[in-house]
């Protein structure tokens, strides 16, 4: 610890305190977390969940752990320094943020969350205080002290996350929850960013459930049978509430924002989108309201795909019936413009594309026909939307179907700028994706 000079105390929590410090040799400012508990061996320190998760997670939107120091049986975590957190940003805002700024914040949170879930961890304590930021331009997920591995075996503790951001299954003491509780917390944070006030500010677990029911309405037994089983175990009866339209709860949100918020705040955990699915919602597809080229009729995306589709099926013995697996139905096909194929359903042969509806099939630039495709089946020519989205950084992943954006009433005078008009276009994701 003699390499650092402590400048000031930043905060004190249950498990440790955080101080602002500076390296003596480079002058770099860091945040040092001092654990209150004593650690008598390195093995004990390295087995901490926060250390195990941060050692595996390296992403622009997850706070970086510089080093771990154990001195006189006291453990110190040296993190990169971030000036504030999202709670302070909301509290100090003179007026509500514009939607492009909020979209930038949520995009970064979901990017970090998708990386975390992809590598087998879920956070369990997402809240504005645990989202560090340097203004709205850069946001990072922090405080992974409660993070758990997705592969770890339940039961989990039912007292996780701050009450206002706790998913209903956790409030009902479900011990077999998983990553969807993080998406519920993102929905609560999203509404709070728009309104500058908590969405469900309950003062107890029962009051928290009542506030959720008052806004979202009472779930039906057919919709969430597991929730009713948990409630009966606790002898809790859901109040009869009709709910309030989200347009009244978050009046400044656009229709694409309300569609994402409604999906994140669904009672059954299995009905909430995953973080990668949330990133493919129309809310993040800025600029897609430009004039789009007509979609290709049956464009084959690769030679492997063409060979697979044109292959002669093997002969089937008349005495045996082939077993056809039941396809998994994507619950967000209506929003994402077609069935989204999950990784478990991808073709193994050469890493071929999945059999779902491609999301960027209509945006490939170039007029040459696909390999293995018919001569009359060509890719659509380069158009304004193709040029725009081809260089855009806020369309996550590689799968967006342009056809799904036609019925959405975007505010084009605020959200988009016509390509080729000479007006400057601001890439709100460029600052932290460089």
From TrEMBL:
<dbReference type="InterPro" id="IPR050117">
    <property type="entry name" value="MAPK"/>
</dbReference>
<dbReference type="InterPro" id="IPR008271">
    <property type="entry name" value="Ser/Thr_kinase_AS"/>
</dbReference>
<feature type="binding site">
    <location>
        <position position="33"/>
    </location>
    <ligand>
        <name>ATP</name>
    </ligand>
</feature>
<keyword id="KW-0067">ATP-binding</keyword>
<dbReference type="GO" id="GO:0005524">
    <property type="term" value="F:ATP binding"/>
</dbReference>
<protein>
    <submittedName>
        <fullName>Serine/threonine-protein kinase MAK</fullName>
    </submittedName>
</protein>
<dbReference type="InterPro" id="IPR017441">
    <property type="entry name" value="Protein_kinase_ATP_BS"/>
</dbReference>
<dbReference type="GO" id="GO:0046872">
    <property type="term" value="F:metal ion binding"/>
</dbReference>
<dbReference type="Pfam" id="PF00069">
    <property type="entry name" value="Pkinase"/>
</dbReference>
<dbReference type="GO" id="GO:0004674">
    <property type="term" value="F:protein serine/threonine kinase activity"/>
</dbReference>
<keyword id="KW-0547">Nucleotide-binding</keyword>
<keyword id="KW-0418">Kinase</keyword>
<keyword id="KW-0723">Serine/threonine-protein kinase</keyword>
<feature type="domain" description="Protein kinase">
    <location>
        <begin position="4"/>
        <end position="284"/>
    </location>
</feature>
<comment type="similarity">
    <text>Belongs to the protein kinase superfamily.</text>
</comment>
<dbReference type="InterPro" id="IPR000719">
    <property type="entry name" value="Prot_kinase_dom"/>
</dbReference>
<keyword id="KW-0808">Transferase</keyword>
<dbReference type="GO" id="GO:0005929">
    <property type="term" value="C:cilium"/>
</dbReference>
<dbReference type="InterPro" id="IPR011009">
    <property type="entry name" value="Kinase-like_dom_sf"/>
</dbReference>
């Amino acid at each position: 610890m003699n390499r650092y000079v402590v400048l000031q105390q930043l905060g004190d929590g249950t498990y440790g305190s955080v101080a602002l410090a500076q390296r003596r040799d480079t002058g770099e400012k860091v945040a040092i977390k001092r654990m209150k508990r004593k650690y008598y061996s390195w093995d004990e320190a390295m087995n901490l969940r926060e250390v195990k998760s941060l050692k595996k997670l390296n992403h622009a939107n997850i706070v970086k752990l510089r080093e771990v120091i154990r001195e006189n049986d006291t453990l110190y975590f040296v993190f990169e320094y971030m000036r504030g957190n999202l709670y302070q940003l909301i509290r100090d805002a003179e007026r509500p943020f514009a939607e492009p700024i909020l979209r930038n914040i949520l995009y970064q949170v979901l990017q970090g969350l998708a990386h975390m879930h992809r590598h087998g961890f879920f956070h369990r304590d997402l809240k504005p205080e645990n989202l560090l930021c340097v203004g709205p331009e850069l946001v990072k997920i922090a405080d992974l002290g409660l993070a758990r591995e997705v592969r770890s075996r339940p039961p989990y503790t039912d007292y996780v996350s701050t009450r206002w951001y706790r998913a209903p299954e956790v409030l009902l003491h479900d011990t077999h929850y998983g990553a969807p509780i993080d998406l519920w917390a993102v929905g609560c944070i999203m509404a709070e960013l728009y309104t500058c006030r908590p969405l469900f500010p309950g003062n107890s677990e029962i009051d928290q459930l009542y506030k959720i029911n008052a806004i979202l309405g009472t779930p039906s037994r057919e919709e969430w049978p597991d929730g009713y089983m948990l409630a009966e175990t606790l002898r809790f009866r859901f109040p009869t509430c009709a709910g309030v339209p989200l347009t009244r709860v978050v009046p400044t949100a656009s229709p694409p924002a309300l569609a994402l918020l409604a999906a994140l705040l669904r009672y059954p955990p299995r009905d909430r989108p995953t973080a990668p699915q949330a990133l493919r919602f129309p809310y993040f597809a800025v600029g897609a309201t430009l004039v789009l080229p007509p979609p290709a009729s049956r464009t084959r995306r690769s030679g492997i795909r063409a060979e697979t589709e044109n292959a002669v099926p093997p002969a089937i013995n008349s005495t045996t019936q082939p077993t056809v697996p039941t396809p998994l139905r994507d619950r967000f096909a209506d929003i994402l413009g077609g069935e989204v194929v999950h990784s478990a359903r991808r073709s193994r042969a050469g890493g071929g594309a999945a059999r779902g509806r491609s999301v960027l099939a209509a945006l490939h630039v170039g007029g040459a026909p696909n390999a293995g495709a018919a001569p009359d089946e060509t890719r659509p020519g380069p158009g304004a939307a193709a040029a725009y989205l081809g260089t855009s950084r806020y369309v996550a992943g590689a799968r967006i179907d342009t056809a799904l954006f036609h019925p959405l009433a975007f505010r084009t005078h605020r959200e988009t700028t016509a390509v080729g008009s000479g007006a400057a276009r601001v890439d709100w994701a460029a600052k932290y994706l460089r």
